[in-house]
Specification:
Blueprint lengths: L3 E5 L4 H12 L3 E6 L7 H7 L7 E4 L2 E4 L1 H11 L11 H23 L2 H8 L4 H12 L12 H21 L11 H13 L7 H4 L2 H11 L5 E4 L2 H10 L21 E6 L7 E8 L3 E8 L3 E8 L3 E5 L1
Keywords: Transferase
Protein name: Glutathione S-transferase family protein
Organism: Pseudomonas leptonychotis
Length: 311
């Protein structure tokens, strides 16, 4: 049985989302710190070029995107459920909206000049310049667009008022009654905003939201210990990818198992990963890759939010 290995860095909102999922399920895991900007040589050895954070590794299987990681954690431990029975569609759809629209608004608000000064003011100027340059290219070639700051400020009260109303009217303690992925997906963007005194009032001005957010953050991060990137690569090299799922799908665009393809995110961070398509399902795509350091690995992507092309 292979350990859960999370490749992440502390200030990543989607890493916090995944850490909270691990805490919600009270799972044990290993923590590998990765750079917040490219290059990421140890991670690239495992993923083949996928640049987003976080990435979950289980032996020689590499899971990209927090939405797919959520599904893998459900398979790892079914209760408590991130996608509760009878609410899976509502929860997954809400989480997708929160991870896209709410997150993009939060990014715009967090990276306004006053917030940047508060968040990064103690960094050496050359490091801050490198970080900003890296993030400035993140949306190149993708379908997502940056939300202008004035638009984010204009629309944020509507988002928060709706969230507060849902919490006040819902009979349970969470967005859909019982705790689920919906709560965690919404919480990580608000956690991001709480990172500076400039943007924290955008959350704290809504008492029901602030109380609910504290409740979600109390899930914690589970039990974890540190691991080096080199050790994680060695684990992948010495492992064999898990058996492929059985519920295969005839791809609607004609891509076939055994074909050399490239898979990339379609919103932002669209760096492509090339390999042999070994599984095509309704939710998941799997590539087989050979890497000089990591050996044979299977890299898993969700179908939603990703594109596949012949390479």
């Amino acid at each position: 049985m292979h350990e859960l290995i999370l490749h992440h860095y502390p200030t990543s909102p989607f890493a916090e989302k995944t850490r909270l999922m691990l805490g919600f399920k009270q799972l044990s895991w290993r923590s590998v710190m990765i750079p917040p900007i490219m290059p990421k040589p140890d991670l690239t050895a495992l993923t083949g070029g996928y640049r987003k954070t976080p990435v979950l590794q289980i032996g020689a299987d590499i899971y990209c995107d927090s939405a797919l990681i959520a599904q893998r954690l459900e398979a790892e431990k079914s209760t408590p459920a991130l996608l509760p029975e009878g609410q899976a569609f509502n929860v997954a759809s809400f989480a997708q909206w929160a991870d896209s629209q709410v997150f993009l608004h939060a990014v715009s608000l967090v990276f306004q000049p006053e917030s940047v000064a508060a968040r990064f003011g103690k960094l050496p100027p050359e490091i801050l310049k490198t970080f900003i340059a890296d993030r400035s290219t993140l949306f190149n070639g993708g379908l997502a667009t940056r939300v202008p700051l004035e638009v984010a400020k204009h629309q944020w009260p509507t988002i928060m008022a709706r969230l507060q109303q849902q919490l006040e009217r819902e009979p349970g303690d969470f967005l859909f009654g019982e705790a689920s992925l919906a709560d965690i997906a919404m919480a990580h963007s608000l956690w991001f905003l709480r990172g500076t005194p400039v943007t924290a009032p955008l959350v704290d001005a809504y008492p029901a939201v602030a109380t609910w957010l504290a409740r979600v953050l109390d899930f914690g991060h589970g039990s974890f210990s540190d691991m080096s990137g080199e050790e994680a690569i060695s684990i992948a090299r010495d492992a064999t990818p898990a058996a492929l799922p059985s519920a295969a799908l005839a791809d609607p665009n004609g891509f076939a198992v055994g074909q050399q393809v490239a898979i990339s995110a379609i919103d932002y961070g669209v760096d492509a990963v090339e390999g042999e398509l070994v599984f095509c399902g309704s939710e998941e795509l799997i590539l087989r890759r050979e890497d000089p350091r990591a050996g044979t690995v299977h890299v898993h992507f969700p179908r939603m939010g990703f594109a596949i092309k012949a390479s």
